[in-house]
Specification:
alpha/beta, 7-stranded mixed β-sheet, disordered N terminus, globular
Length: 771
């Protein structure tokens, strides 16, 4: 960040007053105490306050001291802050007698809200210091850590505008809050055992059975005995179980109705993670950041079943690992000293619970007991998930620690609201010239999920006093987010799904057209009536053109093919061999059906009955996984494609199958024909080539198809987006190959490549409408 100092005219007095406005993520980061200490140390008088646009101050004194203050604000800002801009204007002195922190202003709101931050090292030390008055207090915090977004109810960020407003400060906390030299000077969630929230342990019916430290100790004992605990965390309830016990994990799976999808696990220390996982320097850094996300890590070989049960992440070489990030987690993990499952407090496809009554009703047949507390949660916020790709973070789920940090995008329309997609939904609005992307809201399609989504829309609009004049939505007519947008009195504007993916990547990387956007995912509503998902879009200032796509094939049963990769495989095989495909019983996809089922599916494909056509890269990978015998039915989205990635193991090869390029003709898109790749897979499988080698060749073939189109289109900048680019190998090899060919590839970092980034792309599309 660059600070432009005000120009001093010749002959002006060396004594002056300056008005300063700081924008960005500056509230809840200790900015006001920081400026107070700087100003008083430089002998300046005046005031500082929160305002709806950020942090405002007036300082009066020697011009050189004011200039030094401005430079030090930029250079020494609190670690949790992110200053977007510094505006300073010199004014005539008014004769301030002292420097003070003034009451916050109200008005038009554009200040960024700070995400929740993991407990800092200073607070952890105090938490376990028997001589500290906050010893073992589960809600210890300071200006550099603790709850922010999960407790904010309005802007500006003051205690009266948070869920802490019901807890009156005791004398000792008040002294710290008002002491400019204290670490808790104007820390809004400040509390202690005498005046703050408390924990309690309740049975499955909601009856309190223990309080305070006894509640925590008894909860730890229940986990050790194989019980499942519902913990009220920072942004909602979590379900905890002993990750070393297959019986405990299986009990949680059965109750939560989550058959195979991996569970996240919390380790007590970084050293315990390193004992179980291969951890790079970048991964160590992310595990230890104030965001404290779940980081996907490669497990050590051979696995250590004594530490983590195999059914925590079945058929998966990775673990989603995290460290304790709240005082309550720190206390619990210090007592347990073992790895635990730490997963969202919900059933599959439902939103997470945030208040006690809701949790007692919805989780009472999952949890054996509830470790809860009386600090209200303003909104549900799940744990963020990331993996390290090419040495930097790739956020897969953007929630706690990241949301709602603004994303700088030029030219955003100030009055549009983007409602996102159906899966991995997020919403977005423009605030102060930046995009505010909500926390992950989950998959839509159930009454509870849709209600949670609508509450999220109202919540974001209320916080920022936003009244949208238009809603940006997906082009798919049956998405619940689309239906919501169409019900509003304001106009709604459809944005093609894969165009939104590419715009999202462009916005995050501050890219200007022309761009070759590659959007590969499972499903998106195509403009030609087919299901898109293997798209190459040339984006210019006027919009986009579909310059190429993967060859289409039929999906017998439509949506059922998402749950049954064997159906996608049948579509691929029928496209190549016609009805003869059904006679090849040696192919796992064919033998996975009975003869009666095969005949019904053959008729569906031959007559195109309930068999939509798709160009989806995700469904192509599903079908190939089925052909290799890896997965015939999926218990969660993308499972087959994920297992195709894992099937490569440690194989290293540059070999690839042929993928043909067909001319579209008459200004129609180019078509990448995967038929020879599928035939090569079948031939290699029949000749005994290992599944690991075949899987690696498949990935290499898909990368080479991207390079092939890039050569033809000849646009230097290439943006990679869509759920397929969560695949570590696919992304890394694509970037390396494009760079070798002289292109400049870009991919996601803190905005998910999956549908969690769609809302950002929709918001950018609204801005492009105005050009």
């Amino acid at each position: 960040m660059r600070v432009q100092l005000p120009v001093t005219a010749a002959g002006e007095s060396c004594f002056a007053r300056a008005r300063i406005i700081l924008s960005g993520t500056v509230q809840g980061a200790g900015m006001r105490p920081f400026i107070y200490r700087l100003a008083t140390g430089l002998g300046l008088k005046g005031w500082v306050r929160n305002s709806p646009v950020g942090v405002c101050a007036e300082v009066e004194g020697l011009r050189d001291c004011i200039n030094e203050l401005l430079m030090r604000i930029a250079a020494e800002q609190p670690s949790a802050a992110h200053i977007g801009g510094v505006e300073a204007t010199f004014l005539e002195p008014v004769g301030y007698a002292s420097f003070e922190i003034r009451a916050s202003l109200s008005g038009s709101k554009s200040a960024a809200i700070m995400p929740d931050l993991a407990t800092c090292a200073d607070c952890v030390r105090e938490l376990f210091d028997p001589f500290n008055r906050r010893y073992r207090y589960p809600f210890i915090n300071c200006t550099q850590c603790g709850p922010r977004f999960s407790i904010v109810q309005a802007i500006p960020y003051d205690r009266c505008n948070t869920t802490m407003h019901g807890f009156s400060l005791c004398g000792a906390c008040r002294d710290e809050y008002e002491n400019a030299n204290d670490r808790r000077f104007h820390a809004q969630p400040i509390a202690c055992p005498n005046c703050g929230p408390q924990v309690s342990l309740c049975d499955a019916h909601g009856k309190c059975i223990a309080a305070r430290d006894d509640a925590l100790m008894r909860a730890a004992d229940l986990i050790r005995r194989g019980q499942i605990i519902a913990l009220k965390g920072l942004g909602g309830f979590q379900l905890l179980a002993d990750a070393r016990s297959e019986a405990s994990v299986q009990r949680l799976r059965a109750r939560k109705r989550r058959d195979e999808k991996p569970f996240a696990v919390m380790f007590p220390t970084l050293d315990s993670i390193i004992a179980d996982c291969v951890v790079s320097e970048a991964e160590v850094q992310w595990l230890s950041t104030p965001q404290a996300p779940i980081v996907l890590l490669r497990r050590q070989e051979p696995h250590s079943p004594q530490r983590v049960a195999a059914n925590v992440a079945p058929r998966n070489p990775n673990l989603g690992a995290m460290l304790p990030y709240t005082p309550l987690h720190h206390l619990l993990m210090r007592e347990l000293q073992c790895v635990i499952v730490c997963t969202s407090g919900n059933r599959s496809s439902e939103p997470i619970c945030i208040d006690d009554d809701e949790a007692f009703e919805r989780l009472n047949d999952i949890a054996d007991a509830f470790l809860t507390h009386n600090r209200p949660i303003a909104r549900p916020i799940d744990d963020s998930v990331l993996r390290v790709v090419l040495g930097r973070e790739l956020v897969i789920r953007r929630a706690r620690g990241f949301a709602p940090s603004p994303i700088s995008v030029e030219g955003l329309r100030p009055d549009a609201l983007a409602v996102g997609a159906q899966m991995k939904n997020t919403i977005a609005i423009s605030v102060g010239g930046a995009a505010v992307l909500s926390q992950y809201l989950g998959d839509l399609g159930t009454l509870d999920a849709d209600n949670s989504f609508e509450r999220g829309v109202r919540d974001l609009c209320r916080i920022y006093d936003s009244t949208p004049d238009r809603f940006m939505r997906d082009a798919h007519p049956d998405y619940d987010s689309t239906r919501f947008a169409k019900r509003q009195t304001q106009p709604s504007v459809a944005v093609q799904h894969h165009y939104a993916h590419v715009l999202s990547c462009m916005a995050e990387n501050a890219l200007q057209p022309p761009i070759l956007g590659i959007a590969w995912d499972g499903t998106g509503f195509g403009l030609d009536g087919t299901i898109w998902g293997g798209e190459f879009l040339r984006v210019d200032r006027r919009g986009f053109k579909r310059v190429a796509h993967l060859r289409t094939f039929g999906l017998p049963g439509g949506e059922r093919a998402v749950e049954e990769p064997r159906r996608a495989a049948l579509g691929l095989l029928f496209e190549i061999f016609g009805s003869a495909a059904f006679e090849q019983q040696h192919i796992p996809s064919i033998s996975a059906f009975s003869q009666v089922e095969l005949e019904a599916l053959r008729i569906m494909l031959a007559r195109s009955v309930n068999t939509p056509r798709t160009s989806s890269a995700g469904r192509l990978c599903d079908g190939l996984a089925s052909i290799l015998g890896l997965r015939q039915r999926a218990s969660f989205e993308g499972q087959a494609a994920i297992e195709l990635e894992f099937a490569m193991g440690s194989v290293t090869t540059n070999q690839a199958y042929e993928v043909d390029l067909s001319e579209g003709g008459s200004d129609r898109p180019l078509v990448l024909d995967w038929a020879r790749m599928v035939e090569g897979v079948l031939a290699d499988r029949a000749s005994g080539v290992t599944v690991e080698e075949i899987a690696a060749r498949i990935h290499n073939s898909m990368v080479e198809s991207i390079v092939c189109i890039a050569r033809r289109v000849q646009v230097e900048c290439v943006a990679l987006s869509g759920g397929c680019f969560q695949n570590n190998y696919l992304t890394e090899r694509t970037v390396q190959r494009l760079r070798k060919e002289g292109f400049r590839p870009y991919w996601h970092r803190q905005v998910p490549p999956n549908d969690g980034g769609i809302a950002l792309g929709q918001l950018v599309a609204a801005a492009r409408e105005m050009e």
